[in-house]
Write a structure and sequence with these properties.
The chain has seven helices and no strands. By secondary structure, it is mainly alpha-helical. The N and C termini lie close together (about 10 Å).
Length: about 190
């Protein structure tokens, strides 16, 4: 039952991040930058940060829920055709979970695990998160820029990189500011 609750929680978090992105942040960006043709890339993309944080905390246990949440967001919020929603979902999951596995292997942990905050890493948690963000953001930029290369402008990879990076750092910063209340909840859920 706890696994189902965790999976539902992750799906809801991913959907909420996409809803906030496309109902609040994207309309604001459209007002500030009305002449851009990069409407599908944002300079502050919160869903990437939320997905990284969930993968960071839960490891590969979060993969099915992140996949479902991202796919549903593509269909329901972005009105994407099924094929495009599936491609975006696969790219997003590969871009997040490949670096998680890499970091785990680099620290001689189980490749599929989340970050265990009780273990002694040689660098602190924030630095591990930033490394994960940089690797994931770079991979996401490469995959999406290659897929949208025909429609893309020269600014699109830059916008993807900045948006994913700023969104991830903002999510982690908010978590750290509210860690007294939220962080313990995530840790309990991650280790259940």
């Amino acid at each position: 039952m706890r696994q189902i609750q965790s999976q539902l929680f992750i799906v809801v978090m991913v959907l909420a991040a996409f809803y906030l992105q496309f109902e609040v942040i994207s309309p604001f960006e459209t007002e500030v930058f009305p002449h851009t043709d990069d409407h599908y890339s944002s300079l502050l993309f919160l869903p990437h940060g939320v997905k990284i944080l969930l993968a960071f905390m839960f490891g590969f246990v979060a993969l099915p829920a992140i996949f479902i949440g991202r796919f549903l967001a593509g269909i329901l919020l972005l009105d994407s055709p099924v094929y495009d929603a599936l491609v975006g979902t696969v790219f997003g999951c590969v871009a997040i979970f490949t670096p998680v596995a890499f970091i785990n292997v680099a620290f001689k942990k189980k490749w599929y695990a989340g970050i265990n905050f009780n273990e002694n890493y040689t660098i602190n948690t924030f630095h591990i998160f930033i490394i994960l963000v940089l690797l994931s953001t770079f991979l996401n930029v490469v995959l999406h820029s290659a897929y949208y290369h025909v429609e893309a402008t020269i600014m699109m990879p830059f916008r993807y990189f900045v948006g994913d990076l700023l969104g991830s750092v903002l999510i982690f910063t908010l978590l750290m500011l509210a860690r007294k209340y939220i962080f313990q909840y995530f840790l309990r859920k991650a280790h259940d």
